[in-house]
Specification:
One of its GO terms (molecular function) is oxidoreductase activity, acting on paired donors, with incorporation or reduction of molecular oxygen. Its cofactor is heme. This is Cytochrome P450. Keywords: Heme, Iron, Metal-binding, Monooxygenase, Oxidoreductase, Signal. With 490 residues, the protein is of the alpha+beta class. The protein folds into 2 domains: 273 residues, Orthogonal Bundle (Cytochrome p450), CATH 1.10.630.10; 152 residues, no CATH class. The protein is built from 21 helices and 11 strands. A hairpin with a 5-residue loop joins strand 5 and strand 6. The chain is globular. The structure holds protoporphyrin IX containing FE and 2-acetamido-2-deoxy-beta-D-glucopyranose (4 copies). One 2-acetamido-2-deoxy-beta-D-glucopyranose (NAG) binds next to helix 19.
Length: 490
């Protein structure tokens, strides 16, 4: 993915100016000015089937956007909540097989985000079996829909850098595998689409629809809304796929970082657990609701933890824009800059939210800070959001974007992330794993070993963070779940 984007970038740079910025004031203007657009030529490599909401502009974009918005209707949100809770419970069972040691939190959290997407988009419940284990009973397919989804998402890089006609011809396993999954996925989508169209009258009156049903109905038939134009078959498939990409690593990486930050900051974790106990009490999971429980947790400390995680470790590193006419932008100090037409803007999205001049740092001596590699994990402080976060137009922090292209998946992502963490922290605490080696080196002193492990984790939360299109932990940093009410727990 990175390679293609870089090649694409190089081609654009060759013909014009490029402006890199991480100034939140400039970024905000770029997201809201009419003369500034998405550089569609650069983004086109996303278009595996046809144009999508992310790769078109103007009226065409408005039309795509209206159609996908049908998929995020109010009936979807309770399903996001329930599926996220179910997936977390079954994931905990899966982790029990590894004695509750989670080697790579990020990998599992990306996977849970994908499972939730499969539930919401296709009404397909994915389980935690390994990729190869579940098979299809239809000879037309080599793998089940869940397996095809998983394989494609694990090989997105291959899919983007290889021309489609070549993919099936290269005799190497990753290409063959990806190609088979791609062909399967396309056929599943077409089959599902045909089924929806066959009974579109019935589907359009259903109270609760899958994302696929909503998009197919809105995109294929003439709706009562005369401003919505039908989309090509390729664009329907493309939009579904684009949303799977947009919702997968974003929510997954954020959850992965949140778990690690809570392991490093047990005091914050305690506050979340207290709030979860207060809000959910002893009620069974079937009573937890998106209307009251989710809202309380999102408005409270748990929502603040997620907002703070997104401030320090926003998964989106770059967002691209270009201007169709000469544009004047004003930086944070109030100075104006005239930018010639057709400049390519590269907004360093993640960096725009961590400017130390906007965000006071934790009071830690500079020697300690240096010893801990100036890690941003040190500045994790959710409290700052508890009363201010609901201001919708916070000028300094808008993790889901600004202007017309604001993330349409915001509510889905927030509900999913709150549901996963609440379910997990209700019965379990998360802690770092102290290895035998560290324990021995600390003369079997558990307190010293715990401190050393924490310091090391803080360093790695800076050093091992991959800033490469999406921001994630480059290497595994294991955590362990400990039962909160389990007396026999070691
Ligand atoms: C923590 C999770 C997420 C974060 C931080 C996030 C962030 C963002 C941001 C900043 C943008 C704007 C990009 C721009 O201005 O060019 C965006 C766009 C988008 N997001 Fe999200 N997102 C998340 C989850 C999701 C989910 C779960 C979905 C769908 C299932 C989704 C679907 C989209 C789509 C389709 C767009 C493109 C909108 C357009 O171009 O009109 N996102 N997201
Ligand atoms: C198998 O897949 C083909 C091709 O998509 C489809 O037409 C057929 O109905 C499927 N058969 C069964 C038994 O599901
Ligand atoms: C929608 O309506 C237009 C004109 O009213 C017609 O040309 C077009 O075929 C219709 N499309 C579909 C998918 O029904
Ligand atoms: C927590 O544990 C209790 C007792 O074993 C169980 O009834 C409940 O379902 C668990 N809750 C979650 C969220 O897993
Ligand atoms: C981005 O990822 C690629 C492939 O994983 C790697 O080769 C490259 O060095 C990374 N770039 C940066 C800036 O980390």
């Amino acid at each position: 993915m990175a390679a293609v984007l870089l090649i694409g970038t190089a081609a654009v740079i060759a013909g014009g100016n490029i402006l890199w910025t991480c100034d939140p004031a400039i970024a905000k203007q770029l997201f809201t000015l009419h003369t500034v657009q998405v550089p569609v030529d650069l983004i086109r490599f996303h278009d595996i089937w046809g144009p999508t909401v992310g790769s078109v502009e103007g009226q065409e974009w408005k039309n795509h956007r209206k159609i996908i918005n049908y998929g995020f209707g109010p009936s979807t949100l309770p399903i996001v909540w329930e599926e996220s809770i179910h997936q977390t419970e079954t994931l905990i069972d899966r982790w029990a097989r590894d004695e509750f040691v989670v080697k790579s939190p990020r990998t599992w959290m990306s996977r849970i985000a994908l499972h939730v997407i499969a539930g919401i988009f296709f009404d397909t419940r994915m389980d935690w079996k390994d990729t190869e284990s579940s098979n299809t009973n239809n000879d037309s397919y080599t793998s089940s829909l869940p397996n095809a989804i998983l394989t494609i998402m694990l090989h997105l890089g291959v899919l983007f850098v290889t021309p489609r006609w070549l993919l099936g011809k290269l005799p190497f396993e990753p290409f063959q595998k990806t190609n088979k999954a791609f062909v399967d996925f396309t056929n599943y989508m077409l089959e599902l689409r045909a089924k929806v169209l066959e009974k579109s009258d019935e589907v359009s009156t259903k109270r609760s629809r899958t994302m696929l049903e909503s998009i197919v109905v809105a995109g294929s038939t003439n709706l009562s809304d005369p401003t919505v134009q039908p989309l090509s078959k390729e664009s329907i498939l493309g939009n579904i796929f684009f949303m799977m990409m947009a919702g997968h690593e974003t929510a997954g990486n954020t959850l992965g970082f949140a778990l690690l930050l809570l392991a490093v900051h047990p005091d914050s974790q305690n506050q979340v657990q207290q709030e979860v106990d207060d809000v959910l009490g002893e009620r069974p999971k079937s009573d937890w609701s998106v209307e009251t429980d989710y809202r309380a947790l999102q408005k409270g400390y748990l929502g603040a933890v997620l907002t703070e995680t997104l401030r320090l470790y926003h998964p989106v590193q770059f967002v691209w824009r270009t201007n169709v006419a000469e544009t004047t932008v004003y930086d944070s100090t109030g100075d104006s800059h005239v930018v010639p037409a057709n400049t390519l803007f590269c907004v360093n999205f993640a960096a725009a939210f961590s400017n130390p001049s906007t965000w006071p740092q934790a009071k830690i001596s500079s020697a300690k800070r240096a010893d801990l590699h100036f890690s941003r994990a040190l500045d994790f402080n959710p409290t700052k959001w508890v009363h201010t976060r609901e201001v919708t137009d916070n000028p300094t922090h808008w993790p889901f974007g600004q202007g017309g292209r604001t993330c349409p998946g915001k509510a889905m992502a927030q509900i999913e992330m709150v549901a996963v963490l609440a379910t997990l922290l209700k019965n379990y605490s998360i802690e770092l794993v102290i290895t035998e080696d560290v324990l021995k080196a600390c003369g079997d002193d558990h307190r010293i070993a715990r401190e050393r492990t924490r310091d090391d984790a803080i360093r790695r939360l800076e050093d091992d963070v991959e800033a490469n299109l999406t921001i994630a932990m480059l290497k595994d940093l294991p955590i362990r779940l400990r039962g909160r009410f389990d007396e026999t727990s070691p």
